[in-house]
């Protein structure tokens, strides 16, 4: 193909004439091929056939262009594309002066509609002025043109009326898919789907994803309309049949043109006036309202929720109450007749420039969420009001309120604190602070683990995406809310009232529960809080001065306590740099607190001071202050020993005091600070022992006497008694037990027979978290962390309900076990405890997440199980199941329950070895943790980007940083090490060869423990068919470690044989009459289905096992008759089956197990027949397989077809 020469800037006139001549010669000789080929269309051709042909040509051209270009044999004759000639219409020709004669040389012609760059635009919508001009031109020429034919009349039925309305029929438009419809009509559904698949493969996946998602509303879109709408209610229909509050007042009304105020045709030239909007006309009262509504069009829809200024939902019966006008509850919104304000209206008013409107709106919004945290709105609204936390617009309004420089900032802070700070939940956490097993406290993190580890992906996220992951992290990191509050609290003090300061502290408490380091980094803020709201000033507390500065606040103490509980480095910094403890000691030593006991703040200040000191002692610091505090402590103990009547505050105060004494004794055990020695501090508290005994005996006698019980708060009295018994339990390790036994033996026997103890033990069932159904719904979205203290519909968590037995029984049973030893079980057990254990044994829990407050029940259960006899039927099954319920953060409870289970099913000599093995697997090895503590010599406080303590990295191995909803182990935790060994074996190519000896030892140890458990408690471990499949798959991991040397060992072979026999003789496997392995999936991530796992197992057997007998016996378990043909054919149709040599005397499994149920599948029987007929399996080569096949064929003659029966007859079996 000759290339076309174009003129150059330096060409002369002679050069141009020469090039023109060459162009014309090439054009005549056809040396220049056209870039487009015109196809003449036969006008008489059938249009439908042409369309089908066009579609086929399009498909062919699309298929040819998949690689971006088509292959052409002769490039000179190539045509870039074909141009199909349209029908000729001379009226559409445009007059171009340059086209009146034949082209002599290529020229560029600019279209009159072309853009300045020369590109011809696509057809665009005319402007408003152009349309107005065209309408006027048509009106002037209307008299000259013949009258148009009227559009046909369309019948519109509305209700029972049949009126004809003249509606101008819109012009017919050519649908985009008209060309493809005839083509699709001749295709089946499968062919259409196949073509669709091919089309999607050719398209860019990003384009397909964009097209699919472009209609989906993004998170940054406006707020949803159905948020905070009540549920289904009665539709308010007036006398004329209109739905009050509905936007569609008239649906397709039959209205005459005479009823309209103006003729619609006269205003068509004006913008947006060509369409008659009947709903607006009906609202204005123009349209008559006597039109009947179609009953199907009326939708039952809830009304918008409206609230008063207290944040309470206004009931429907108060909608017509005249007093609502006096309360200023009517506004100029869409529903002026309804009192109250919707959340949308409050958000609008929250951005008002008027101070009063902005303050009232934010206050009301905060009160709404304060009530919503309690659960009173859970079943009222169609969606939870907390769903708004996913929307940037909502968070923006509240956060924007913090940027004001007037008194409305108090309202904005109150709104945000009510949103983030669930008051009821925080109270529950405070009440249970001194209960057993409360530590570690929760970190309110909702971000997924993979995002926390990958900081780069977090930085690339947009704001609305990050908001949907973690609300608190978004506020801390993206909005810098802590820095803003630091500036306001330290620089704009005159704007704050008491409620504003308390709101700031509440927000900081929630931030500290999420990222304590983020709060600790703001030293100026912490110093201001310590100086102004922690340092004591009792005179200001009495008089309540006009200013808030200098008044000690309970929330300030709680903020410090939450920071101390987070980690050791934070506690050390607060102890040394901020001098918090001297102020705390002054509150504890204040001698006039009884005179002000009626002041709630005083009581809370004293109790919170105890908690701060306990938090310091837990980290192994602040022990030196105890010596100075000892005289005050003895004064308190003397009072408790002599007092005849104790108030509720006395009981709470004594419980915290006894907890302090217990913490002093355990100080050496919990010490992690540098330079601390592991020693007892019994000498510091031994003088308090006799006084605590007197107090405990006094309370026991009160519970025994019914006439004295009504004088005391039972919950607080039990807490005080329990903490006293806990202290005495620790004291028994250092003093004579006989003296305590003589004093307590008689009164304790009377106590266990009292009505109080019977009520406590009967509450085990009603207060159990393990037996209670997990809440199906949650009022909070996934970006808001909650420990679940207040469940759905405001139900209190069962473990926290009144007269909770778990914390007291944990202390009481532990004390009895220490004092009485063998008699403890007889003393504490009764029929209520037996019923509780029986219910737990048979209860089936399907939930995956752990309840935060289940730790109290687990601690109590451990103490009960520990005093049971070793061979008690409920001891191991319950201990085995409890380990799968322990949260990852409660590692101490896990260790205790693990030892109980090991002492039940293992020899005493093997307990320690197995215990260390499993602790190492679950990363709870005590030796490793102690080594880590010893190597930690630095006292410098360092934090990572997220505010977590550590050397720039988050300590993910520490239980403190694990989510409390994650469990440490699953239901079959004893098989975890085998799964772990398999993962290690396949992790590296030479791992097995380099660590073969260690691998064999660990496999033998794990199988030995599994054998002991299954032999004694097989039916407790394998309770359902799903359990059988999971246990089978995890044991078979032994055969998939990459080498047969692991199971060739005689000891390992013997263990595998005993385990197999135990499984086969178990209740589930022996009684199975239906498919098990083919129906259930293994509960481990290595296999998608059992068929995939079994296929891999069969391949391993035929390739690497040297046809090991034990391995083959495990392969036979899923080959029983009820199983699916697909699974069984994996083994029976294997190409190397003829090489198998198996005899019955060497296999632990019998032919009776495989043949007890007759084979009924004709295909399987045909496979058996062919094996015998072809000699693949014979009696001499593999007697076991031959006996199985022959037995199946003999027992299944009634299920054979005629052809199969004839073949069986010819075999002469």
Automatic annotation (TrEMBL):
Tell me, what's a Pfam family for it?
RPAP1_C
**Chain positions covered by the region annotation Disordered:** 41-72, 107-159
Localization, per the record, is: Nucleus
Q: Where's the RPAP1 C-terminal domain?
A: 305-372
Family, according to the entry, reads as follows: Belongs to the RPAP1 family.
- Where in the numbering of this chain does the RPAP1 N-terminal domain appear? 183-215
Q: What is this protein called?
A: RNA polymerase II-associated protein 1
User: Which species expresses this protein natively?
Assistant: Orchesella dallaii
Taxonomic placement: Eukaryota, Metazoa, Ecdysozoa, Arthropoda, Hexapoda
Q: Which residues form the RPAP1/MINIYO-like TPR repeats domain?
A: 975-1195
Report biased composition (Basic and acidic residues) as residue ranges: 41-56, 133-159
Q: Does the keyword Transcription apply?
A: yes
Q: Which residues form a coiled coil?
A: none
Lyase listed as a keyword = no
Record's keyword terms, sorted: Nucleus, Transcription
Judging by the UniProt lineage, the source's domain of life is Eukaryota
């Amino acid at each position: 193909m000759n290339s076309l020469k174009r003129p150059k800037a330096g060409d002369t006139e002679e050069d141009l004439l020469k090039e023109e001549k060459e162009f014309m010669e090439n054009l005549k000789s056809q040396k220049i091929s056209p870039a487009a080929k015109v196809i003449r269309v036969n006008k008489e051709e059938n249009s439908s056939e042409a369309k089908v042909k066009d579609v086929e040509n399009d498909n062919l051209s699309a298929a040819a262009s998949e690689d971006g270009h088509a292959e052409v044999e002769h490039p000179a004759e190539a045509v870039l594309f074909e141009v199909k000639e349209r029908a000729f219409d001379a009226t559409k020709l445009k007059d171009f002066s340059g086209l009146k004669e034949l082209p002599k040389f290529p020229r560029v012609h600019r279209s009159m509609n072309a853009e300045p760059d020369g590109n011809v635009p696509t057809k665009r919508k005319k402007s408003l002025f152009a349309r107005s001009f065209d309408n006027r031109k048509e009106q002037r020429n209307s008299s000259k043109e013949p009258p148009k034919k009227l559009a046909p009349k369309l019948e519109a039925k509305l209700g029972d009326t049949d009126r004809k309305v003249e509606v101008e029929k819109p012009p017919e438009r050519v649908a985009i898919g008209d060309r493809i419809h005839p083509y699709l009509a001749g295709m089946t559904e499968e062919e259409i789907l196949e073509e669709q698949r091919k089309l999607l493969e050719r398209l860019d996946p990003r384009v397909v994803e964009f097209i699919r998602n472009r209609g989906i509303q993004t998170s940054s879109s406006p707020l949803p309309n159905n948020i905070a709408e009540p549920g289904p209610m009665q539709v308010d229909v007036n006398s004329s049949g209109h739905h009050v509050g509905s936007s569609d007042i008239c649906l397709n009304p039959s209205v005459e043109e005479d009823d309209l105020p103006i003729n619609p045709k006269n205003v068509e030239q004006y913008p947006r006036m060509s369409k008659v909007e009947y709903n607006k006309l009906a609202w204005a009262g123009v349209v008559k309202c006597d039109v009947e509504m179609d009953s199907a069009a009326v939708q039952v829809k809830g009304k918008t929720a409206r609230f008063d200024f207290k944040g309470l939902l206004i009931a429907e019966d108060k909608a017509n109450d005249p007093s609502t006008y006096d309360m200023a509850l009517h506004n100029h919104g869409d529903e002026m007749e309804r009192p109250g304000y919707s959340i949308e209206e409050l958000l609008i008013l929250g951005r008002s420039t008027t101070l009063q409107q902005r303050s009232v709106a934010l206050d009301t919004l905060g009160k709404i969420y304060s009530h919503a945290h309690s659960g009173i709105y859970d079943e009222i609204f169609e969606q939870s009001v907390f769903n708004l936390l996913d929307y940037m617009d909502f968070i923006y309004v509240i956060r924007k309120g913090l940027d004001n420089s007037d008194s409305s900032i108090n309202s904005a802070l109150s709104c945000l604190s009510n949103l983030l700070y669930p008051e009821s939940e925080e109270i529950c956490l405070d009440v249970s602070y001194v209960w057993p097993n409360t530590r570690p406290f929760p970190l309110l993190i909702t971000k997924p683990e993979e995002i926390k580890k990958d900081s780069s992906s977090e930085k690339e996220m947009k704001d609305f995406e990050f908001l949907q992951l973690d609300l608190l992290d978004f506020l801390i990191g993206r909005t810098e809310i802590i820095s803003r509050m630091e500036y306001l609290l330290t620089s704009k003090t005159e704007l704050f009232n008491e409620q504003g300061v308390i709101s700031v502290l509440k927000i900081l408490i929630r931030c500290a529960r999420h990222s304590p380091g983020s709060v600790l980094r703001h030293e100026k803020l912490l110093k201001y809080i310590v100086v102004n709201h922690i340092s004591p000033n009792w005179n200001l507390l009495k008089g309540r001065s006009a200013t808030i500065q200098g008044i000690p606040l309970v929330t300030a103490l709680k903020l410090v306590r939450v920071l101390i509980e987070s980690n050791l480095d934070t506690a050390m910094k607060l102890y040394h740099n901020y001098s918090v403890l001297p102020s705390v000691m002054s509150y504890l030593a204040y001698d006039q607190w009884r005179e002000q006991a009626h002041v709630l703040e005083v009581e809370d200040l004293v109790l919170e001071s105890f908690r701060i000191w306990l938090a310091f002692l837990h980290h192994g610091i602040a022990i030196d202050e105890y010596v100075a505090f000892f005289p005050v402590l003895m004064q308190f103990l003397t009072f408790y020993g002599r007092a005849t009547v104790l108030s509720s505050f006395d009981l709470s105060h004594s419980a915290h005091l006894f907890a302090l004494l217990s913490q002093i004794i355990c100080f050496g055990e919990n010490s992690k600070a540098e330079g601390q020695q592991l020693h007892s501090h019994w000498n510091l508290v031994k003088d308090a022992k006799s006084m605590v005994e007197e107090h405990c005996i006094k309370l026991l006698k009160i519970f025994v006497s019914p006439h004295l019980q009504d004088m005391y708060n039972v919950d607080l009295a039990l807490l005080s008694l329990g903490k006293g018994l806990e202290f005495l339990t620790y004291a028994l390790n250092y003093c004579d037990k006989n003296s305590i036994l003589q004093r307590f033996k008689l009164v304790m026997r009377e106590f266990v027979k009292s009505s109080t103890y019977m009520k406590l033990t009967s509450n085990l069932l009603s207060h159990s978290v393990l037996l209670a159904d997990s809440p199906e719904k949650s009022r909070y979205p996934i970006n808001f962390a909650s420990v679940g203290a207040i469940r759905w519909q405001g139900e209190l968590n069962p473990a926290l309900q009144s007269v909770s037995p778990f914390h007291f029984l944990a202390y009481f049973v532990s004390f009895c076990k220490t004092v009485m030893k063998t008699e403890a079980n007889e003393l504490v057990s009764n029929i209520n405890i037996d019923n509780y254990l029986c219910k737990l044994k048979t209860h089936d829990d399907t939930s995956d997440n752990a309840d935060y407050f289940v730790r109290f029940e687990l601690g109590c259960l451990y103490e009960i199980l520990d005093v049971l006899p070793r061979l008690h039927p409920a001891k191991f099954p319950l201990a085995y199941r409890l380990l799968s319920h322990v949260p990852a953060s409660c590692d101490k409870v896990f260790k205790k329950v693990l030892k109980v289970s090991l002492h039940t099913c293992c020899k005493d000599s093997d307990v320690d070895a197995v215990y260390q093995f499993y602790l190492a697997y679950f990363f709870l090895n005590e030796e490793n943790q102690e080594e880590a503590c010893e190597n930690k010599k630095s006292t410098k406080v360092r934090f990572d980007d997220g505010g977590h303590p550590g050397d720039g990295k988050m300590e993910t191995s520490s239980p403190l940083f694990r989510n409390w909803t994650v469990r440490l182990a699953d239901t079959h935790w004893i098989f975890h090490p085998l799964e772990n060994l398999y993962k290690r074996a396949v992790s590296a190519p030479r791992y097995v060869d380099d660590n073969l000896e260690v691998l064999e030892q660990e496999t033998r140890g794990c199988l030995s423990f599994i054998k002991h458990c299954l032999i004694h408690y097989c039916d407790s471990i394998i309770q359902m068919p799903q359990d059988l499949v999971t246990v089978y798959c995890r044991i078979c991991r032994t055969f998939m470690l990459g080498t047969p040397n692991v199971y060739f060992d005689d000891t390992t072979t013997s263990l595998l044989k005993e385990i197999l026999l135990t499984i086969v003789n178990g209740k589930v496997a022996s009684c199975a009459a239906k498919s098990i392995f083919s129906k259930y999936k293994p509960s481990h991530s290595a296999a998608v289905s059992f068929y995939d796992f079994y296929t891999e197992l069969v391949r391993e057997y035929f390739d690497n096992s040297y046809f090991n007998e034990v391995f083959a016996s495990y392969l036979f378990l899923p080959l029983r008759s009820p199983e699916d043909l697909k699974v069984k054919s994996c083994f029976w149709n294997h190409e190397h089956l003829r090489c198998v040599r198996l005899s019955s005397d060497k296999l632990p499994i019998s032919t009776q197990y495989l043949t007890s149920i007759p084979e009924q599948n004709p295909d399987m029987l045909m496979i058996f027949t062919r094996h015998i007929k072809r000699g693949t399996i014979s009696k001499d080569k593999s007697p076991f397989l031959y006996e199985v096949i022959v037995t199946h064929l003999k027992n299944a003659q009634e299920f054979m077809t005629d052809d199969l029966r004839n073949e069986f007859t010819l075999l002469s079996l």
